[in-house]
Amino acid sequence: VTKTRRVIDVSGLPLSAIDHRSPIWIGNALLLAIETTMFAILVATYFYLRANFQNWPPPQVNYLPPNFHPAPDLFWGTLNLIVILAAAFFMFVTDRAALRYDKKGVLIASAVAVACGLVAIAFRFREFHGTQFRWDDNAYASVVWGILFMHLLHLLVGVVEDTLMFVYIGKYGLDDKHARDVRVTAVYWYWIAGIWVPLYAIIYFGPYWLGL
Amino acid sequence: VKRLAIQEVEISEKSDALLHHELDITWKRRPGLIGWIESTNHKDIARRYIITAFVFFLLAGILALLMRIQLAFPENRFLGPDLYNQFFTVHGTTMMFLFAVPIMEAMGLYFVPLMVGTRNVAFPRLNAFGYWVFLFGGILLYVGLICNVGPDAGWFAYVPLAGPQYSPGKRVDFWSQMITLTEIAALVGAVEIITTVFKHRAPGMSLNRIPIFVWAMVVQSFMVIFAMPAVMLASGYLAMDRLAHVNTHFFNPAEGGDALLYQHIFWFFGHPEVYIIFIPATGFISTIIPTFARRKIFGYTALVLALISTAFIGFGLWVHHMFATPVPELGQGFFTAASMIIAIPAGIQIFCWIATLWGGTRPRLKTPLLFAGGFIALFVFGGLSGIMLAAVPIDLQVHDTFFVVAHFHYVLIGGAIFPLFGAFYYWFPKWTGRMLGESLGKWNFWTFFIGFNLTFFPMHQLGLHGMPRRIYTYVPETGWGTLNFVATIGAFLIGVSVLLFMINVAVSRKRGEIAGNNPWFAGTLEWATTSPPPSYNFMHVPSVAGRFPLWDRDELSPVVTGLLVQYREVLNTTVLEAAPDHRHELCGDSIHPLILAVAVGLTFTFGIFNPWAFPIGGFASLLALIPWFWSGTETEKQERDRKKKTAEPFELPAPFLPKGETS
Description:
The complex is a heterodimer of chains A (212) and B (663). Chain A is mainly alpha-helical and 212 residues long. Helices cover 71% and strands 4% of the residues of chain A. Chain A has 5 helices and 1 strand, in the order E-H-H-H-H-H. In chain A, helix 1 (23-50) packs parallel to helix 5 (176-209), helix 2 packs antiparallel against helix 3 (103-130) and helix 4 packs antiparallel against helix 5 (176-209). Chain A is elongated and about 90 Å long. Helix content of chain B is 64%, strand content 3%. Chain B contains 20 helices and 4 strands. Chain B has a two-stranded antiparallel ribbon with strand order 3-4. In chain B, strand 3 and strand 4 form a beta hairpin. In chain B, helix 4 runs antiparallel to helix 7, helix 5 packs parallel to helix 18 (592-606) and helix 9 (300-314) runs antiparallel to helix 11.
């Protein structure tokens, strides 16, 4: 028994999309929405706790002589901001190379991005030190360490993701799917750097703007 | 967007049988236990979710009955105060985190892919991971309870009571790490649902043709994404404040921390949570009512807009849980107004449902519709006491009394459990191929409805008489004995009702009436396939020409061909129009989700006791992720094998090589 059926033949459609039309791009964007919400609540915590202190940051009296305005160390913080922005920039270069299916370009640029990421992780520990507090000194120290730490986790994940991609593409080449994955990882890095700009401003300039 | 032409092809029954065979080989899970564990089929995962969440519902229900026995008489000695505290905490925690949210998402994970006409969710392995992590979190809570370290500071674990000073020991830590695990699962489910709806809809299902249930799941998922991080952070702060050697001071007033901060962050999650549970339930109702009224839903656009505005307003009224704390008067006014405004979208939905019933042919009074009717009555009632509670003077009077207990059981059981049971009756034929018994179903409904009102209506009165919540007993002179006794009888009637439901399921699974593809003559796509659906859902991905595709389509409606059958290939369409855009291969079955879930679960379990669990467990989790990323889809595997055979060496780009060498 045969009959006719009306069909839409999709066999001519491409096997993947290399941009925001791809499901993984949307999944990544949703992940970033979750993480942004998390940082927003951390920031809200920072400002909420401000009201409980006379001075911001509170004086560090565990040492002699006491430090009455122990603002976080601007030098390492600013240096690391530049490094993180550089990592995002090299991910942008990686992204452009992926668009051209330029395997060599992807490998070189992403290796530089990984290097920047590793440096940023190392500098982050210097930033912890630069807060002049331990996380368990007071609520101010807890929230500042909290923000620095949660962002550090994203740096770690970003570096691991990049490294995996570097090895995979080096070993098996740059196909459609992995070119797309490179581009999605680049978005992740833009976010890591982009979210750090306001967080950096709050952590490092909050102590001046929110007054003694 | 490139438009694809509609073509005509000749087909025979033989070619369809062959197609079924080929698709089944590709999409079916391996036989045996390993295949069961590795499965990433959305129907397998969702069924597990539903059954597991239902088991937690029964456990929490048993705890509720034990509490009702304790409260049945004044000065009862059945449970001590300590056990009572653990029971009410675990009851509330289970119902919110292990039952209501997961089961709503699970219904979505089962039916959203079917209703939008695709073969699986967007990220199948992530979906499996979500289930395993949820299971881990649930077991953690009950292991705690059995070992007498069940949390005992209430389901919202307010500090300072839940803080290190007033709750020493590990009880509250079991609560906070259980939160982390189950919320990971909730977030995973939300990302799955949104991406599946955005990218995997059948051609033609533009935004204005998405079934209302699917809209409800999308809106709920967005709420999950913006609400759940708050509770994870609140419980994370709490855990870090409590954990030895970490001892942060987020909530410690002695070091500048703030107890009210906890309430703010918790309720910023906690109030949207109510709508996270309630919005899918309205989706059930919007699905059931048109089917039984036999007409298309009245006010589709109004319903969708009502869902979206509920979600927005739902984030703007958390402070009404905190009217008994020092809130500025302006804040009180704002949050009272917001709490009342949210009644408007709820009212719009109710009027649309009534209009649908009114405008249809004489409605068929089957069990799902009975539950829908019960829902409307009870939810309106609970909504009215909600309007009362939104007014600050009344709220201050009845704060922390049984009036509040009565109110939130009316909105949660009336607003979510009744629709859920309706949905069970409605979709059971799709799950099993057999109908649930109608007469037992009617008994189920009426015992539930009467038992529910018998239990919770007297609690309004008790609250007005001043009975506080969370007390394990009371003296006879209060005069609360009679109403409490009535409530206990009602609770056991609910127990009987749930028992009837389980008997109905057990009997009908084996001996129920054979359902066929579409026993209710419903209009949405899940009824276009067999009951139960095959592993690949649809032999031909359908195209959609209206909001009720099965009512709108005819012989001439085209279907999709050209997807590869030897891989798990699906069609991705555009977000707005659902025009065919590209093909996409999904990953197959995999053990990695379970491995990662075990790593994550153990991290947070040991994190209850020692902070070193986090760096070590975090590292282990990253290790578990590497093979997950590496394994990928079938074509990737084949591509790698091909490259291995040709033995290409690892190619380092020139700058990494010593001078003079090229790769």
